[in-house]
Each structure stands twice: as structure tokens, then as C-alpha cells.
Specification:
Layout (H helix, E strand, L loop, with lengths): L21 E2 L10 E2 L2 H11 L6 E4 L7 E2 L3 E4 L5 H14 L41 E3 L2 E6 L15 H14 L3 E5 L6 E4 L2 E8 L7 E7 L2 E5 L3 E5 L8 E9 L7 H6 L2 E9 L8 E2 L4 E4 L6 E6 L10 E6 L5 E7 L3 E5 L6 E8 L4 E8 L1
Parallel strand pairs: 3-5, 9-15
Antiparallel strand pairs: 1-2, 4-5, 6-7, 8-10, 10-13, 11-12, 11-14, 14-15, 16-23, 17-18, 18-21, 19-20, 19-22, 22-23
């Protein structure tokens, strides 16, 4: 967007005209810099970044100023990076100022409370760690903050542990650490013949504190890896529940309830493939089928047999429920079946002509 002027209004008599009508002295606080046309800011975001989680407005004015609200705002003052982080603390994480901003801004927040009981205060898990305590605001000693030197009070220090935890919780609320999983058919029973490979793709912080636990029927079988192979010989014939739990074990969080709530679980059900016994039979001399099991191509070959265009053989591949998944005519002594599109499992291969037939078990790997 383009504005007629640069900067922001310093007072109501200022004639500066900008697209978002940014101005200082909001609510009578000189450094409180806000966009007067938040509707325009919202429209711009909807057009260019409709899935935004947090927006930041940088006002091209050198005077010190900024504000929170849903749109974090900062000027281009020399301390702008620190101002922006402080205001994002308000906008993104819902944090309060840890300096006294006035009675009108006092409310129960993750880093502001009237509770003074150390066993009940919201930051009780952090008391005594890195100077976290219960500090009264001198302007109104009925309100308390957790730290004396946090970015929500003064510029340049880091966020205190209480504010850091709140920010990380907000990130957890917005991001699912599991971006994809294989097999992706977690809503159906998978059939295992030899083995099945399970895997997940995750997104995590640096260093990565995302941990995993793999369970089969509630018994842990592996941990802190993001792939796992289940071998058919290691399980019985019953239905198997495969569960993968993903959790961020970051030390930035001490809220055990939150840890449980943000654990992501991916589940599958697996069963060994079961068949009604079928005895293979073959009436074609010289019939060869290879390779079996097959992954991409299965070759059917009948040596010494007279096959011609006037009397082709019929080739069918049937699923275990009898449904036909492949159908073709065999015009020569050799025919190639494309197995690539079939799901892994056992099938029946039926070959027939007017006089003879064969029914054989084949396996797709």
C-alpha cells in the first residue's frame, strides 16, 4: 500500500496522512503508537497473507513508540527490534507489561496476578529459578509480577522463564509437530505379510526437543526415533494397535498438564493377512510364474504351449474376497502383469482357456 506522507501523527493537529492513519499518544500515552485504521490493516492481511498467525506493523517514524493488541506495532526507532519483541509478547502470547502501565491495564495474566500464595500462583513451578519470585508493583502492591528484569518490563533483557513458557505454549497451540505420516491410512486396518514400515515427518525447534514413543498394544517397543518397522513374525494373529506419541520435551515448559495436552498421537491398526486355505492347481504343462513375491512385474510363461490369436488364454488377478483387480488376454507364450498399482498382499492368479485352467496364489510385496 502507498501513503501520501511518511511517519505518524504526533498529536491531533498533525496533518500527516498515511494509509493506516498511525498516530502516537493513544489513550493519552505519548509513546503508545497505534494504527487508526485497523480495518485497512486487516484487509491487507486477508489479501496477501490470509493464514497469518501474528502480524507486525512497522511505522516509518523515528520516534520511540509501539503497541500490542492483535496487531503488534513498532516505530523505526533505534530500539525497534526490542520494541517489536516486547509488543509481540502482548499480541502473540497475551502477556502483560511487567512495569506498571496503569490500573486500566491491570488484569490476571500469565505474568500478572493478585494471587500471592506461592502454592497457588500461576508461576509456582518457576519460583526460585533464575530470580523468579512474587514481586509486588510498587504503584499498586496488590498486583504481582514474576521478575524484575524481563523484556516485558525493560528492553534488552531476555524474556523471563514465565513469559518464555507462555510463548512456547502459544507456539504449541498453533503448530502440529507431525507434518505427515506413513502409512497415511491410519483410519483403516493395515494388512501385514512380511513387514510394514511406519514413519513420521516432524517439525521441531533447534535444538530439536521432539521425542517419540512407539507402542504395540500399550507396550513400548521403541523411542526417540521417527521410523519403525513391524515384522510379521514378531506379532500374533490378533489385531495389533500401533501408537506413536510425539511430545516436545523442551525445558522451557514446566506445566505438566500442558505437556499431556499437547502430546500428538498417531495410531494404526495392523493384522496379519488371513486366508481361507486354497490348494493351488494347474492344468497347464510348462507353466512358470516369476518372481513370486513380486513388487512391480509378474511374468507368466507357458513353455511349449500353442497360444495364438484365435484362442488366447484369459488371465485374471483376484483379491482375497474374489474381486477382480486385473484382467487381460494372453496372446503369446509370455505375459507380463503390472503389479505396481496393487496394494501389498496375497492374490489369486487364474489362467484359463476353453479346455484347461489354473488357480495359483501370488504375493505383491
Amino acid at each position: 500500500v502507498v501513503s501520501r506522507d511518511s511517519g505518524a501523527k504526533k498529536d491531533t493537529s498533525d496533518k500527516i496522512q498515511t494509509y493506516f492513519e498511525s498516530a502516537y499518544n493513544f489513550a493519552g500515552i505519548e509513546r503508545l503508537l497505534v494504527a487508526g485504521r485497523l480495518d485497512r490493516a486487516f484487509d491487507v492481511l486477508l489479501e496477501f497473507s490470509p493464514l497469518f498467525d501474528q502480524a507486525v506493523l512497522i511505522v516509518n517514524d523515528a520516534k520511540y513508540g509501539g503497541s500490542g493488541g492483535w496487531l503488534a506495532t513498532t516505530s523505526v526507532h533505534v530500539n525497534a527490534p526490542e520494541i517489536a519483541l516486547h509488543e509481540i509478547g502482548h499480541s502473540f502470547a497475551g502477556l502483560a507489561d511487567e512495569y506498571w502501565a496503569g490500573e486500566q491495564f491491570a488484569s490476571e495474566r500469565p505474568n500478572m496476578t493478585r494471587e500471592r500464595d506461592p502454592d497457588r500462583i500461576v508461576w509456582k513451578n518457576w519460583l526460585g529459578y533464575k530470580d523468579v519470585d512474587i514481586y509486588p508493583h510498587s504503584e499498586d502492591p496488590t498486583w504481582f509480577r514474576p521478575h524484575q528484569n524481563c523484556k516485558m518490563r525493560v528492553l534488552n533483557p531476555e524474556f523471563c522463564p514465565v513469559c518464555t513458557e507462555t510463548i512456547v505454549k502459544r507456539i504449541h497451540a498453533l503448530i502440529n509437530p507431525v507434518t505427515s505420516h506413513r502409512p497415511d491410512s491410519s483410519d483403516m486396518v493395515l494388512t501385514i505379510i512380511d513387514s510394514i514400515a511406519f514413519a513420521v515427518e516432524v517439525v521441531g525447534p533447534t535444538p530439536n526437543t521432539i521425542h517419540s514413543i512407539w507402542k504395540i498394544n500399550d507396550q513400548m517397543v521403541s523411542r526417540n526415533v521417527f521410523d519403525f518397522t513391524l515384522v510379521a513374525g514378531e506379532i500374533n494373529d490378533d489385531l495389533q494397535d500401533i501408537d506413536l506419541s510425539i511430545v516436545d520435551t523442551t525445558l522451557f515448559i514446566r506445566d505438566t498438564v500442558h505437556q499431556k495436552m499437547q502430546t500428538v498421537v498417531v495410531s494404526w491398526q495392523v493384522q496379519k493377512e488371513q486366508f481361507t486355505a486354497i490348494n493351488d492347481f494347474n492344468e497347464f504343462k510348462g507353466l512358470r510364474i516369476y518372481p513370486n513375491p513380486a513388487s512391480e512385474r509378474l511374468i507368466v510363461e507357458i513353455e511349449g504351449d500353442e497360444t495364438n490369436s484365435t484362442s488366447p488364454k484369459r488371465i485374471e488377478v483376484l483379491g482375497i474376497r474374489g474381486q477382480r483387480v486385473y484382467n487381460a488376454k494372453m496372446w503369446q507364450n509370455q505375459h507380463v502383469i503390472d503389479m505396481g498399482k496393487l496394494k501389498g498382499g496375497s492374490y489369486l492368479l487364474r489362467i484359463s482357456d476353453d479346455d484347461k485352467s489354473s488357480l495359483l496364489t501370488i504375493i505383491k510385496q
